[in-house]
Amino acid sequence: MKIQGLLLITLVLLFASCDKVTNPIQNRSTTATDTVKYIRKVLLEDYTGHTCGNCPPAAAQAEALTEAYPDKVIAIAVHAGSFAKTKAGYTTSYTTTAGNDWNGSSGFNISEGAGNPNGLVNRKAYDGSNLIQGITKWPTSVDQALKDTYVLGFTLQPTYDAATRNLNTTVKAKFKTAYSSNTTITLVLTEDSIIGPQTDYSKNPDKIPDYVFMHMLRGDINGSWGTLLKAAPIAANDTVTVSFSNFAVNPAFKDKNLYVVAFVSDAITKEVLQAEKAKLIKSSGK
Predict the structure, then answer these.
(1) How far is Cα 84 from Cα 98, in angstroms, rounded to an integer?
(2) CA neighbor of 77 nearest in space, from 211, 174, 177
(3) Could you say which DSSP state residue 130 is in?
(4) DSSP character for 90?
(5) Tell me: the pLDDT tens digits for 174-209?
């Protein structure tokens, strides 16, 4: 009986150990020094504004998608357009140069005529949808985007000096497949847990004085449209490392709630090929 008990315990431990191994091939580094993981990720952009009464449901939808696909869907809330303008009772501006450029006619020309909120999924038009999408289209487009061809992976390593508020970021990318166009990389800052007034037509009264804004775009690190990552032709297994140094973080931002979001795009079509998000890592200071 003792022997049978020991065998039973051994078998249980073996099965329990096996249950902890999930997709070992997908998540395994290709070499001892290669930390790029082959996981397709999606960039979801929510174009919004603090006087847009229909926008809180979109923020909730974006949050739900990031929770439904943890570490795979990366959201950015872009405050731009007429609903992001300041007025009495809404005196803090959350607009940015990058957000205005993306939102405007020189960018994606996000149409407020159809009624905000609107969004972009990987800056690509998916089956049955336009490039610019209402929130009802986001779940289907995100699901399709996660099945797109995996082109490259990259690691994002931000180092932040809290004393000087100086940010340095290194990106190490590896292409899994050949690619025939130039690629760019864009780095931005986002901030969570910003408290401020927001119009919400589902509430009465419809002005929420202490609304919690998440994933808010705070500005670009290397320009609205990024900089060259790698020029074509690009071969499978090509690697590239780029660094962005001495970026001054605005002292008005709460560094504990800040993230660096980076995404690689096709330089011509602007389609997002991969995205990553990393919390600021303090190297010194409080």
Answers:
(1) 14
(2) 211
(3) -
(4) B
(5) 999 999 999 999 999 999 999 999 999 999 999 999
